[in-house]
Fold each of these.
Amino acid sequence: MELDDLYRRVIMDHYKNPRNRGTFDGDAVTVNLNNPSCGDRITLQLKVEEGVVQDAKFQGEGCSISLSSASMMTDAVKGKTMEEAMGMAENFSCMMRGQDVDFDYDDIEALSGVKKFPARIKCATLAWNAMRKGLERPESND
Amino acid sequence: MNASELRKLFPILDQEVNGHPLVYLDSAATSQKPIPVLEALKAYYEHDNANVHRGVHTLGSRATDAYEGAREKVAAFLNARYTEEIIFTRGTTTAINLVAASYARSVCREGDEIVLTPIEHHSNLIPWQQAAKATGATLKYIPVQPDGSLLLEDVEATITPNTKMVALTYVSNVMGTVNPVKQIAAIAHKHGAKILVDGAQSTPHMKVDVRDLDCDFYAFSGHKMCAPTGIGCLYGKKELLEKMEPVEFGGEMIDHVDLYESTWKELPWRFEGGTPIIAGAVGLGAAIDFLQEIGLDEIERHEHELAAYAYERLSEIDGLAIYGPSKNRSGLVTFNLGEVHPHDVATVLDSEGVAVRAGHHCCQPLMRWLAVTATARASFYLYNTHEDVDRLAAALVKTKEYFGHGIG
């Protein structure tokens, strides 16, 4: 088990300098999600217009893996259609199961090392699950 | 007591994890099991296994003797007055739920109070929330000091003549504080309230005498004290248990069954519906023998010394915050390493072969009170050594280096 597989430089960069941290003024799809086994939590906001994710922001508390994953995810979904965003979430799950997956947003691939640390997969998927939940029912604010 | 020698009786500890000899510091979550307990389970299944209380055949009597013999061991271990005051349950959670669902719901009315502390494990919190919702009773909390301890004057001020039930932990699974439950029981009784003591973190580590404490109910789990998972106990004073209705119904717990009405067996079996946890009880009996042979006082002394040593070693690490009292702590140390999230701490420690718990420890209200989302916790048992603490300290220093800035 190599720690550096888990804590790659790009992950630590997103952890220490998270992108898209904050909240929107005005209307946005809002999802609150917890990881009850460890206390991590995320509030994700998505600006969706005509089926396209225009912008995304998050707030929350968590470990380096969950926060860096949220930072990458919010960057990566911007400008994607809802369908494309859901596809990315599916791809992310596949990556956690050990499959080779490509992302337009390369940084995400740095999280592939998480698959070797089964206890941490839930940390990595929290933000993605929040995104899925938000896009499944974009009209209803959680 | 010689921890290095005792350690050899725990086969699981003799292994490498991620290329390092395992240092197991998560016994507050669950303890490891010694050879005598593993052998007792094997012997039971190889020689005596049968269902209890009904077989006319020889194995049936042997299994019944083994099961009821374990009950007698628990009764003596806790110094209960009567063997039938010991009810086998799945663990502490089930034991507390039984009291909350049966006793508390039958005695509590609107306007009554159930008194707790904010440092309780979820298992000694949520059953009372549910009982309060069902009866209209109010939950009240004894305030805690910054180090997690309780002041008797605060206990006095919280418990009133309207208090029907007081439930609190003997030893905190996060703060390591040891609560003065004997004095609190006296205060509760002065107001006519009953007291339940959560013994999950005390029973494995110190001598417990339920008659000396004068508690009305006492709950604990076997798996934290060298026994298998899935076995625990509720102790209750006989006169209270006799008034309580069962909450699980079915085989084993009945006296006479009609199509429309049934009656219950006497204590303790009326609370043990279904085929009981026979092998678990046998394992618990073997664990009690094992612990008593070493001596609970010896175990307590050893762990307090280890916790004090850990407190000292961890205090040397800049940026590391330790929660709980600096003195008189039971065998665990809860901490955070600067801004590094406890998950990340636990992952790096694991890569060094050191197993600790990270998270909210089933104490979300306590985490909010500490103003943290999670903590890391190292907990000790009879098989841990000073060397284990040194390995923990060294691994923490490495964690700090690994995560670089933001600490200290």
Amino acid sequence: MGFKEDLKRGVAVEDDLLRRLRSLFPNAKRAEGLHPEFDIEIPELQKTVEVKYDPMSQKTGNIVIEYYHNKPSAFSVSIADYWVIVTGNGEYWFSRQGILDCILCEGLEPVRILGTTDRHPKWVFLIPISALVRYSNAVLAVQL
Amino acid sequence: MRPAEFNAQIKSAAKKTYYPQCLKYIEDNLEPAFHDLAKATLVYYLPSNILDLPSKDERKAAIDSIPRNATPSHTRQLVEHGVMTLWKKERNGI
């Protein structure tokens, strides 16, 4: 799977979430320009959302939370109030603090991975879904 | 540098507890190419070390030693939240 395909699938997941959010919050919109701090803004609630598509988690059982990719990235720079992680068979909502709580309380250690489309290694936490859901605000449509 | 070696160095840095000393350890023991990564990783090891300090005043001083403009952004906020989380976990005996 190439970078463009990954990007395309990620955008489709964001579009789907945005469509559903707009049914409740018509002013919800995608972040404009280069915005690593969040993906979607909900002005009605003054909240922001980071969307992450992680289909590999279905095979590995782990959600990848990146925090460094040649520079501080993703979890290190996001200011989103909510992280929505879409695995392909479920959608999990977290606060940023919830993810941090999981990393700390479960005693997780960072690991270095090199994705097939990455030029530089990423530093990430591999968080078992079974552990992470305990820190979730909501779990939608999980197919067991 | 192997990840296990890197993580061991960051654990040692975090044992310094007070942010300026942690940074000094990083600068003294890691090559410059790893400094930004080390600072980004420190966030996850510092809370448990701060919580281990014997008094509330010392814990507060350790958190206050993190500049509000430390990089990555939100370092102080994340560490402070992490200390509170681990404190609640310990208090509740979870």
Amino acid sequence: MKQYVLKRLLNIIPIMIVVSIIIFMFIHLIPGDPARIIAGQKATLEEIEIMREQLGLNDPYIVQYKNFMLGILTGDWGNSLKTGLPVWEVIIPRMKPTLILAIFSIVWSVIAGISIGVISAINRGKLIDYIVMVGASSGISLPLFWLGLMLMQIFSVKLGWFPTTGIDSLSSYVLPSITLGAGITAMIARYTRSSMIEILKENYIRTSRAKGLSEFIVINKHALRNSLVDVITIVGLQFGFLLAGSVLVETVFAIPGLGRLLIDSILFRDYTVVQTVLLIFTFQFIIINLIVDVLYGVANPKIRYQ
Amino acid sequence: MEEVKMQEAKYEDFKIENPMKEFARKFLKKKSAVVSLGFIFFLVILAIFQPAPYDIDETDYDNILSEPNSEHLFGTDEYGRDVLSRIITGTRLSLSVAVTAVTIGAFLGSILGIIAGYYGGLLESLIMRFCDILFSFPGLLLAIGIVAIIGPGLTNVVIAISIYGIPTFTRVIRSSTLSIKELLYIEASRSIGVSDTRLLVKHIFPGTLPALIVTYTMRMGTAIISAASLSFLGFGASPTNPDWGAMLSTGRDYIGVAPHMLLYPGLMIFFTVLAFNLLGDGLRDTLDPKLD
């Protein structure tokens, strides 16, 4: 097991390094002279030169990269180009809404997705199974931001049950987290269903039924436990969807989170903030995938020895 | 005692069907896939002939934001332009963005995948690490990041979505190539001295087609949603273009007064994506049950 975790860890380190290089190169990849863009159109040549010196753009790339990564690791993320505030001061307050949104969404979609999948599997071929499958296909095909707009139209504008935008109270998170979790719920339901259907065909399920266990125990204790192994992987993979989705959902519901910050910073060409947010998103995603891999190895010993 | 009946083997049981016929027979059984294919044909016809009742830029200032009525079936927008006409005309734009982006992604991704799967070794490791790196940008964020670098606009959205699709195709085609190259007929071709290039193009590539077609169809749905999402975020089509995503972006400002501006373009995106996804499901079941 230790070896397996170690192998996985060693696997992601080069990826993290390359990803960080790409994100570091960001400021150099934008067409035009970054110092000129950052200094603004009215800047004089002198001002641009000062800006270039300040940003360390005159150093060799390797030195710049070293400084960039040292800064990231020690918490010195540079200053926002738009406001001049330290980047961490801009980013930290934005983390909480995104985190709450992500946790709400993942919790409800895991609970709903697994329950729907199980119900669908044990009623295979019946009307309820059919409805669930149609719902799941639709859930995957829905444009997330449109679902959010529709929910907002119905429940906030027409019925007035929830606030339309902002994050004044926890009830502000209800519609956004339903929106963000809908696609993931559909995915989880689909996988739980197909995995349960496979497992219910196994011999040990027949044995448990034959020895007189109640259907409830057969399903929940024997079948579901084993299908959860597959479901873990799907939940993990969906995290990527969640992060990207938060960008859209936060835009729809005007939630001041990290996703919205990313879009605003791109629009304002606030590249230091863009770099840091992208780095947070990607590293978070890589680490979550690592955790999923490890959990999968814990749950399924076969994987460990491949 | 029960009578045991021996069933006679009929000629039909051993007949090998024409693969195209077999495919058609299996495919026609998938009702949702057939309906989806019909809907996609309908969209293509809309895109080609654009049978819009009004000109998309025709403004009617007496009928601003008016609700759906007999004159304007889907209502009008903030300039009094007919929403239905803009949706119909927008079909061409939305479909061609998706087709172009997915085709470029499929082309580059397949080349990388087939090379990785066939040659193996260092080349394979390099290509697969490249995919890992692209995959470590979660979902749409890769496309957003690319647009952030090369700037907004429809062409750049196409580029971003193409790159976003590359690693998916590479992985699928690689694993397909890996299983095909072990087959006997490949060994036979190689033993009679067929060159690598010819082998790849003539013998291995056709074998990867089922996987390629299924992935292509599935990616169409993703590409349409991605393009609409980027437009919605303000990176894609400008609001003057009759793009479905851009229409939603404008419609958001009128959510309280003109919900029809949101409802219909969104439904159009939803049905289109659903059609591609269901068609992909159907094709996967008929072409290659092993694919996931």
